[in-house]
Amino acid sequence: MKILHIIPGSGGTFYCGNCLRDSKYVDALKEMGHQVVKIPMYLPLFGHEEDFGEVPVFYGAIETYLQQLYPIFRKSPKWFIRFLNSKPMLKLAANMSGSTDAKGLDEMTISMLLGEEGKQKEELERMVNWIADHCEPDVIHISNALLLGMAPRMKEKLGCAIFCSLQDEDGWVEVMEPHHQERVWQLMHEKSSAVDAFIGVSRYFSDLMQKRMNIPVEKIHTLYLGVDRSDYRVKPVREKPRNIGFISRLCYDNGLDILVESFISLKQIKGNEDIRLILTGGTTGADKKFIRGLKKKIRNHNLDKDVEWQEDFEEDSRLEFFDRVSLISVPVRKELAFGLYLLEAMASGVPVLQPDEGAFPEIISISGGGEMYHPNSPDALSEKLDELLSRPDKLEELGRKGREGVAEYFDIFRQAEEMVKLYEKISGR
After folding, report:
1. Please, which pLDDT band fits residue 23 given cuts at 50, 70 and 90?
2. Gyration radius from the chain CA atoms
3. Burial class (CB within 10 angstroms; exposed 0-12, middle 13-18, buried 19+) of 382
4. Is the pLDDT assigned to residue 86 strictly greater than 60?
């Protein structure tokens, strides 16, 4: 099949589960012999030069922001748009404070959802015309429901089946002012009529979004995320030091402070002198003050040498991270739709320890590769960490079950095959 995948990028400044999800899925489709075109929005997916390729970045982060605030930029010459969408400028945007935070971007989100009636309508037309000139897709797959504003125009111009993934849109909307939240959910519902099928990444999130967006039940399908187990290597727990790992964006929302506080408590227990904490996943400018506060707290407890901040988290560095940790915990503060780092850890034979919230119970129950704790507090997490780290046999068993669970239930090729079957059924191709 000819598949067009539209993916908003993070620019490679932090661990972006959605970027990895889409990129791994596209790679699997290509390996299966399908023709796939990946169109990045806002920022490149990662920091790699090849992410640019011959496909332009549409809705460049700086361009989109300026068009929202200043009408004059909506008629900018092509050379100026190319400059704003150049790699140096987009790298600058990726590091801007708040670039991944919905606070203050309420009106832009609404404008994007308005599509042809929004302030970025010229860019929408540029994207649709580029697709018409360069691709003849059988299906178009949109990465998330916050991009639904483009669906009606694409359906009108290109006439192909349109699919949309659902993952953590609620987290973006819920930080907005109440009246903006209501407007966003309303627009997402209205624009959903142009979409042929929605794909939730867990049963928990499919049910949630069906109600929030008021979508007909028959339009929503659940397909779990997946990874290629052969991409990861396994180092037995007995050969590792007792290191606790954190891999995600290093920020307040992901509960990094909860883990740090639990680690400080854990180190006060006799016999835990050898335990260390390894943190990776990158940041945005908005996280700097938060990180400074955590480093000061760690320093005040004389634990600087026991906490490692690993800057690089892409490709080989991520594999090295999993080689060095006995388990991971990302104590996120909100209920997540999935969490791709769970699969990456379990594929590496590393158990996971997560709060009993959102899709975590569903994923951990199916895979068998971890345990949960409740409530999501430093004390509860510290107690559970102490229990698991004192039982290497238990960690070894969880690591084995997790890797087997990934192979059986979360294999990227199996999930891609199911997605293609759905494409074929809905599109009639």
Report:
1. confident
2. 22
3. buried
4. no
Asked if residues 282 and 250 have their Cβ atoms less than 8 Å apart, the reply is: yes
The pLDDT value given to residue 52:
44
> How far, in Å, CA of 317 to CA of 321, rounded?
6
CATH number of the domain that residue 221 is part of: 3.40.50.2000
Q: Give yes or no for residue 43 having a pLDDT over 60.
A: yes
Which two tokens mark 101? 């935070």
The per-residue pLDDT for range 138-172, each reduced to its tens digit, is 999 999 999 999 999 999 999 999 999 999 999 99
Same domain, 257 and 239: yes
Q: In terms of domains, do 147 and 290 share one?
A: no
pLDDT at 314: 85
Count of domains for the chain: 2
For position 360, what pLDDT does the model report? 98
Q: What digits encode the pLDDT tens for the residues 198-251?
A: 999 999 999 999 999 999 999 999 999 999 999 999 999 889 999 999 999 999
Do 252 and 332 sit in the same domain of this protein? Answer: yes
Report in angstroms the alpha-carbon separations of 35 from 31, 155, 258, 339, 356: 10, 20, 44, 27, 40
Closest CA to 253 of 163, 326, 355, 183: 355
For CA atoms 378, 379, 383, 389, the dihedral sign is: positive
Cis ω for the linkage preceding 375 (within 30 of 0): yes
Do 233 and 222 lie in a common domain? no
Q: Which of 166, 224, 231 is nearest to 418 (CA)?
A: 224
The answer on 400 and 353 residing in a single domain is: yes
Do both 317 and 263 map to the same domain? yes
Q: Are residues 367 and 397 in the same domain?
A: yes
Least confident of 19-33, 143-157, 285-299, 319-333: 19-33
Q: Give me the pLDDT at residue 92, please.
A: 56
Are 260 and 353 in the same domain? yes
Domain that holds residue 293: 229-409
